[in-house]
Predict the structure.
Amino acid sequence: MATLTSPTLGNLLCNVRNLLGQPNSTNSAWTDYELTQYINEAVRMYFAEVAKNYEGYFTVSTDPNAGGVGNSGLGNLSYTANSELVALPADCFQVRAVYIQRNQGWSILNYHNDLSHSYSTNIGSGTNSNTYQPSYSFQGNNLVLHPVPSASGTAVLKVDYVQLPDQMVNGGDSLTNQVSPVFKQLVEMYAVYKAKMKQSMVSGTDLTMLPKANLEEIYSNFKNTIMPRSAYPQYTEPFNPECY
């Protein structure tokens, strides 16, 4: 497998400019700001496909004790007495799992959006989270706990989630997670294609044919490299002639 990489914005811009044949940003038809917008657009477009098909990419945890870097390093989530809402991290794209802390470790919570089989009333959970086992659903960028807690719990909810990629602004900014080289190439070629598309619209001459063909080829390779990993596990059973 190819070595993973965390390219910086400066590296991406340099590669895009070389592909466009205008390495000097001071003598170019495209500003760094414009190309940066195309690069960030590409990352946002394609990252969800990576996260969906390649388990583990862009996935973080709120638990700092487990090396989690989610929630901007603020740690696990808390809930408040008589309130069903718990704000998710601002960079949360998709929740993978929610856990509640127990004396012996962590217990996973069930997702349940059928309120006819849940409860919206307070329970006597006291101050011990070991007696409170809610289910959860979503409202906006919030968890909705059912039943509503009757006591508060501080830093007792751990969330594993898919993190939206950082918006790259400065040259030293890099993608949130390490990515495969083909993802990097796809982002760069998308930026080249968008730059040429703008140039075509201004000049009235179509200059997108080659960039578009290259983009489609890289995208095909990209799709092949992100075949489902762990989402649909396959098992090889040893041949047993007695079964036939």
